[in-house]
């Protein structure tokens, strides 16, 4: 099977997203914080007269906070009829990738494992295929003790 994937970089890791899940890639100049929002919700931004919820992918993946000095890039996805911007460090490419994803192996941190769908290979590099809906949902909630 051959599918288009958007390749981006988050915290130095090249990742892939199914291109059919991606509406666009945009640059965000201003993010307005939302009081009492989840830690992975960076805030709101305007996109062509529409409100875009900005997701801090670092926080969603439990690896810190996305660097936000000046203009940032976001991959726009639609989940349940709502627009979300997933903050990325950089968009690298869009590529046709052949084959089904390989299963995830042990050793991934909880956040990456939660958002991961599998591993895809592109130009002899392994890329973690992420599920945008799982990123939007945020970090997994720790089980009550």
UniProtKB/TrEMBL annotation:
It comes from Sphingomonas abietis. Pfam families: CheW. Signal peptide: none annotated. It comes from the Bacteria. Residues 2-141 form the CheW-like domain. SUPFAM superfamilies: CheW-like (SSF50341). This is Chemotaxis protein CheW.
């Amino acid at each position: 099977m051959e599918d288009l994937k958007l390749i981006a970089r988050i915290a130095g890791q090249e990742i892939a997203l199914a291109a059919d899940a991606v509406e666009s890639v945009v640059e965000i100049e201003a993010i307005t914080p939302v009081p009492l929002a989840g830690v992975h919700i960076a805030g709101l931004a305007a996109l062509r007269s529409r409100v875009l919820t900005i997701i801090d992918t670092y926080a969603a993946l439990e690896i810190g906070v996305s660097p936000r000095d000046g203009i940032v890039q976001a991959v726009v996805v639609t989940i349940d009829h709502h627009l979300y911007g997933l903050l990325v460090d950089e968009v690298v490419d869009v590529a046709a990738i052949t084959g089904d994803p390989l299963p995830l192996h042990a050793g991934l941190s909880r956040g990456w494992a939660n958002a991961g769908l599998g591993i895809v290979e592109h130009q002899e590099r392994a890329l973690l295929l992420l599920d945008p809906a799982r990123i939007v949902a945020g970090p997994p909630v720790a089980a009550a003790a």
